Each structure stands twice: as structure tokens, then as C-alpha cells.
């Protein structure tokens, strides 16, 4: 009943540093996917918030693709609002795949209830600026067995892309150009790009330069150029430049794997724990001898926090 983590638990952190792991298998693609033409169907979905549900309850969402649970959000308690703001990248079989978001109510760690679901159409938007980015954002009323007049609604944003990928040999000249002119390309395009387009450009170039092995030079040059043209140091790395977006993209690229390697096992242990660690007096259900209960919960929470920090400290050996 507890929301399932999308992080794969691992017993021990990998010995390969996170900043090297993405390039370790370059050129070792066992299924030779890069040798042929293929279509990749990619869905990015943001689970934003829910409205129309009773307060003081905890809610989370499951993302189900073709009947298989792929991801879950964390459980959030409804106060004035219930906001998740979580995003997920999902590979689907085709545009005919059925993607649904299930709204779940969590009574406790062992008891949950399906309130209803929303089916996400895999299509691109057709008008406005969102069409350029392929983004669709709206409130979706959930459907359930017993349809209510004022059904809860989920605010969801998503982008579906069906991309034809040519054999790698077709991109040789492009790879050479990007390798030699990546910084000049950014300087040329940046003045005419929207913020979203800068983000997409930075993401693509970070992945390319990282795979080709010159991400450090690329980022350093971008950052130096950004520093030289900024008039106030207070604005440094706080704007919407390609350099700022590239730093964010690189941190996500290596940081996601680092978090999985470092914390997945301890986080999974905490999720599956039955011990109560709530320290907010307003949320503690056992009101008998409240001061003692709070001290017990604080002690349990401290043990978990210390364990998490120990994993983080040990991860320094990977760098």
C-alpha cells in the first residue's frame, strides 16, 4: 500500500564515480541499437497537484503504462492545497500505449484506496507557445466507478514525442560540428532563443559533450563567457542563460545516478520501516503522554538522519 519508489535499491554503492559512469559504456552498446533506424516514443509528465479532495488526508499518484506500474509520487497531506510538482521521464511502446494516472488516498502505511484515474492522451499540443515545446497542461477530472458531481481533479502537464532516430553514422558530421563549435553555437543561438529553447539546447549539448568526453571544457568555456558578460556578480548563475541551464542539466545527469547509488538502499529501508518518526505535535495521533512520544519519535528520526549522512560521507570515496 505504501507508494513504491522509482529508485532501484542497491546493496552497495557502485565503485565507479558518478561523474564517470555515463561514459564508461560508450561504444559498448550490446544490442547495436545505434546501427539501425528506430523510433523512440518518449513521455515526460509532471504530476502537479490535486483539488476537490478532503483535507488532512495523504494522497499520492501512480503512473501506469499499459497496465504496468511505472512510477509513484510521494504521499502528500492535503492542507490548503496538495502539491507534488514531480516529473517523470517514461519510454512507451507507441502512441497507442495507454497511460493513466491513479489518484490514491493513504490512510496509513498499510492501507490505501484508489479514488479514481485519469487517462493521458499521447498527442502534441497544437496552438500557442506550448505547441512549440509540445507541452499540454490542464486540469483532468478523475473517473471512478461511482462518478460524483464534484469529482477531484488532477493538474497534469505532459509532453509526448515520437522521434525517428537514424543510424549513428548519419550523425558523424553533426557530431564533428558540435565537437568543434559547441560554444560558438550557443553564442549564436542564445540571443534568439526562448527560455524553454535554451533549456532544450543546453540539455542536448550536455548529453553530446558528455558522451564525447569533453563536457569539462564545454562547461568551463560557457561559464567563463557568462561571467565576462554579466555586469553584476549578484546575477551570476541566477539567470536563464544557456550556461546556467547547462550546469543544471549536468547536475541532473550525474546527480541522479549519484543519489541512486548513495541513498537508494537507506531510503528504501526508511520507506519500509514501521516505526513512527513524526515529530510535529499537531500530526501525532497517539496523544497519551505526548512529551514522551515526541522524544521517542525524535530519537528514531535522529537515527535515520545519522544513517543517511553516513552514506553521504562514505560516497566521497567514489570521487
What's a concise summary of this model?
The chain is 37% helix and 25% strand. It is an alpha+beta fold. The two termini are 37 Å apart.
Low-pLDDT runs: 1-30, 125-132
β-strand number: 9
How much helix is in the residues? 25-40%
Shape: globular
User: pLDDT average, as an integer?
Assistant: 84
Order of helices and strands: HEEEEEEEHEEHHHHH
Instruction: Classify the oligomer.
Output: single chain
What is the CA-atom radius of gyration, in angstroms? 23 Å
Q: Structural class of the secondary elements?
A: alpha+beta
Please provide a written account of the structure.
The protein contains seven helices and nine strands, in the order αβββββββαββααααα. By secondary structure, it is α+β, with helices and mostly antiparallel strands. It has a domain of 124 residues: Sandwich (Immunoglobulin-like). The strands form two sheets. Strands 2, 3, 4, 6 and 7 form a five-stranded antiparallel beta sheet that branches. A hairpin with a 2-residue loop joins strand 6 and strand 7. Helix 3 crosses helix 4 and helix 4 packs across helix 6. The longest helix is centred in the last third of the chain and has 31 residues. It is globular, with a radius of gyration of 23 Å. The two termini are 37 Å apart. The relative contact order is 0.14.
